[in-house]
Design a protein that fits this description.
Layout lengths: L2 H18 L8 H19 L9 H20 L8 H21 L12
Helix pairs in contact: 1-4, 2-3, 2-4
Length: about 120
Amino acid sequence: MGAEKKDHYVEKVVDYIMRKCLWQFHSRAWDRERQNEGIMTQTTQILCGEQPDVQTAENRCYWVDAVMMARGLTVENPELADMNRDDIRLFMADAKKRLDFLTIHGSLNQELTDPKY
């Protein structure tokens, strides 16, 4: 997958999350890091035709969001069905990095790191 095409899909994923996913708004940085990892990992697995681990309550919670996100991404981007797993993993990993920057590391929201919150 070329860099331009990968960047295109990264932005589509981030745009979808920002428009349609409320889970991005946890109030603490550690919550956001954990849920970004869980949901993005499971969404990637679903898009790749794999079954995520849903043995714990936390993973089942992430799984519900991941299923809905994978469905939405597939509906809005039907070409995902024709992509290979390596390409999906590549752009989803970059989308997670971008999401982490926007919602955690690059955020100016001081509540995210307030130890009293």
